[in-house]
Design a protein that fits this description.
- With about 160 residues, the chain is mainly alpha-helical.
- It has 2 domains: about 1-60, no CATH class; about 70-160.
- About 60% of the residues lie in helices and about 0% in strands.
- Helix 7 (about 105-115) packs across helix 8 (about 125-135).
- The relative contact order is 0.13.
- The mean pLDDT is about 80.
Length: about 160
């Protein structure tokens, strides 16, 4: 089985974060304790597990400072590796989320950073939605955006925001 960081993250998200069951202990306990054993038994390699923990650690460290999000800022221009990894549909979805207030510019940049940190050459829209969901889950004050995004995960077409 060729698993990726995203596969490990989705497993953690589905088994711990969405069930309000805190993963055991701090980063060191996560990387070497029963959770590592559980993930290994689930079929993930230790290398991918550690990369996923690093990904989560970087997400936690990059929370935007509290305050008013930048509104009406410049248009985001994608370049080089971002264009290679995120197709037009993904980039359009990020613009949609920002234009409708689901993501602010800082959160958009965090989503892009975390998407680019995944060890995949390309992300499809479904993968990007999971990254957005994990970022919003980690952002204090984003409960409404998280709830809206969670409903979008199970729809074929995004629902318009009013």
């Amino acid at each position: 089985m060729k698993e990726s960081i995203l596969d490990v993250l989705l497993y953690l998200f589905e088994h711990y974060f969405t069930e309000d069951v805190p993963p055991p202990g701090d980063r060191e306990q996560l990387a070497n304790g029963p959770l590592l054993d559980e993930l290994t038994q689930a079929g993930f390699s230790p290398a991918e597990i550690h990369k996923a923990f690093d990904w989560l650690g970087a997400l936690a460290e990059q929370r935007p400072a509290p305050g008013d999000p930048r509104a009406g800022g410049p248009t985001r221009i994608f370049f080089g590796p971002e264009l290679d990894k995120l197709d037009v549909e993904c980039r359009g979805f990020l613009m949609f989320l920002e234009q409708h207030g689901i993501l602010d510019p800082d959160q958009r940049e965090l989503v892009l950073d975390r998407a680019m940190a995944l060890d995949q050459d390309e992300l499809d829209l479904e993968d990007l939605k999971w990254v957005v969901l994990m970022v919003l889950f980690n952002q204090p004050g984003s409960e409404a955006a998280y709830a809206w995004m969670e409903t979008q995960m199970y729809l074929d077409e995004p629902e318009p925001v009013h």
